[in-house]
Amino acid sequence: MPLIDVQAERCSPDIVLPSYEDVSAPTDAVGVRPLLPVVGANLRVPLVTGQETTYANLDYAASAPCLEEVAAHLTEVLPYYASVHRGAGYASQVSTSLYENARAQVAAFVGARADDVVVFTRNTTDALNLLAHCVPTDSAGERAGDVLFLDIEHHANLLPWQRGRHRYVVAGTTQRATLVALRAELAARPAALLAITGASNVTGEVLPLTEIVALAHEAGARVVLDAAQLAPHRRIDLAATGVDYVAFSGHKVYAPLGSGVLVGRRDWPDEAPAYLPGGGAVREVTLTGTTWASAPQRHEGGTPNVLGAAALARACQVLADLPEGALEEHEEALRNRLASRLDALAGVWLHQIWRDSPSAIGVVAFTVEGYEPGFVAAYLSAEHGIGVRDGKFCAHPLLSRLGAQAGTLRASVGVGTTLRDVDRLADAVERLLSVGPRWEYARVEGRWTPVGDPRTAPAWAGATLGSAGGASPCESGTTR
Ligand SMILES: Cc1ncc(COP(=O)(O)O)c(C=O)c1O
User: Fold this and answer.
1) What atom of ligand 1 comes closest to residue 198's alpha carbon?
2) Is the Cβ–Cβ distance between 478 and 50 less than 8 Å?
3) pLDDT (tens digit, 9 = 90+) per residue, 168-190?
4) How far, in Å, is the centroid of ligand 1 from the Cα of 201?
5) Residue 11 CA to chain centroid, in angstroms?
6) SS3 of 210, please?
7) Residue 469: band (very low, low, confident or very high) from pLDDT cuts 50, 70, 90
8) What is the mean pLDDT of residues 435-441?
9) Other CB atoms within 10 Å distance of the CB of residue 191
10) 11 is catalytic
11) Which of 121, 358, 430, 438 qualifies as a FRET site for 255, CA 20 to 30 Å off?
């Protein structure tokens, strides 16, 4: 995509923006109201014009806001916060119980089998690296079998596998063809593990899990499900689907406290060397030898993140307590509106991996003709108070195959999103296409930024907007 040199007039401060603050008459229509209350739902954000608006958060797939119920739970447990597994004091014992209880709640959330193990990690990336560390090895210390993955994966479900024996399969243009290719590859040469995402973090398309597990198991391979995107949107059931391992992150399931989890079959984690050698991972240490604890403690060296685990577990419970189908219904209404409104705009292109995907979570990737994704994202934020993601979404091979080497935009929704948020995005894109931006933008440290951006961060955030760090090196659409 050519570099766009936008020469736009700065807007006068008295421009009247459409008001999105008025809540329309109560209605029961799906998507009109948030499905669950989230912290920051009425966040006021500054615009470049000097006005303020309510933030439209359409970036749930990156990090979802905290559920109000999770925040209330944290306030409840914080006074009891103390060391886990390490103290006889009352607060320490309560914290230990909270932590171990969280394990059981997370196990229930993913339908774990009775003998599955739950290891708390920092996030999905950490959980998948942990599993990569646990894949059995031969006498030379090499992986005893290959790990197989598709070319559409997030880097977190690709890079850990590249550190040992691995193969990849290029996904076909249909899911059907992709399954055929996977089956052929597994039949041609056995693999130890098939690593597969539950839903694409770029396009939201959901993969046919039951069929994938069946063909992997037929070929003697275990399956790890990268559920970073699936877990916030769909029920997961290890026992029913036969998935061997699942990894996901707290911050994507409305629990932003730096926690993640790996759940699954106990034998590999029990036999692997400790992932994070240190306090808590051992039974006994002498200066000449160590007896390691079994999983999960074996891989949870150091002081556990009890608040992260408690937040993650409570978020799982809240999602699990939603009436059957409510989450899917809410998000489908939002996604359909988002996709159909964007698709109706001449000059907007939606991206999809497969022609035959039966369903997708609330994630839509798109590009706007004539504008770089980073420019559109900056415009949406600066002039409309809308947060979306742009870039390559840590999925470079997929973006290449979509023909979007310069990246795309991604809008994503969740339990706190309403149709009004989605309409604001579509209206703003429509306006960009019809009248263009009102402000002038320039590239600063690889990111499109409003020229002379008058917005500031709150004092406690300690940085001028956009100044701290610029773009992530792997996300900027163009080389810097
Ligand atoms: C599909 C998928 N897998 C893995 C990850 C990595 O998650 P985290 O950054 O929480 O480790 C992400 C993050 O966006 C993702 O979307």
Assistant:
1) 1
2) no
3) 999 999 999 999 999 999 999 99
4) 8
5) 35
6) helix
7) low
8) 98
9) 23
10) no
11) 358
**Binding pocket residue ranges, ligand 1, CB within 6 Å:** 123-125, 154, 156-157, 197, 201, 226, 228-229, 249
- Ligand 1 atom with the shortest distance to the CA of 251: 10
On whether the CB atoms of residues 454 and 50 are closer than 8 A, the answer is yes
For 211-229, give the DSSP string.
HHHHHHHHTT-EEEEE-TT
> From ligand 1's centre to the CA of 66, what distance in Å?
17
| Given 66, 134, 316, 394, the catalytic residue | 394
CA of 125 to the centre of ligand 1 (A): 6
Identify the helix (H) or strand (E) that includes residue 275: none
In angstroms, rounded to a whole number, what is the distance separating the alpha carbons of residues 411 and 402? 17
Q: Which SS3 state, helix, strand or coil, does residue 351 take?
A: strand
> ∠289-291-294 over CA atoms, to 5°?
155
The pLDDT tens digits of the residues spanning 10-52 come to 333 334 444 444 444 456 799 999 999 999 999 999 999 999 9
Report if pTM > 0.85: yes
How far apart are the CA of 149 and the centre of ligand 1, in A? 15
> Among 75, 119, 115, which Cα is nearest to 309's?
119
Contact (CB, 8 A) for 261 and 127? yes
Q: Residue of the nearest CA to atom 15 in ligand 1?
A: 228
Residue whose pair of structure tokens reads 């002379």 in the numeric block: 452
Query: By three-state DSSP, how is residue 451 classified?
Result: coil
Cα 7 to chain centroid, rounded: 35
User: 353 by DSSP, 3-state: which?
Assistant: coil
**Tokens 């991206």, located at residue:** 351
In sequence order, what DSSP letters do the residues of 254-269 get, joined into one string? T--SS-EEEEE-SHHH
Pick the atom of ligand 1 nearest to 156's CA.
Answer: 4
Identify whether the C-beta of residue 453 lies closer than 8 Å to the C-beta of residue 443.
no
CB 335 within 8 A of CB 412: no
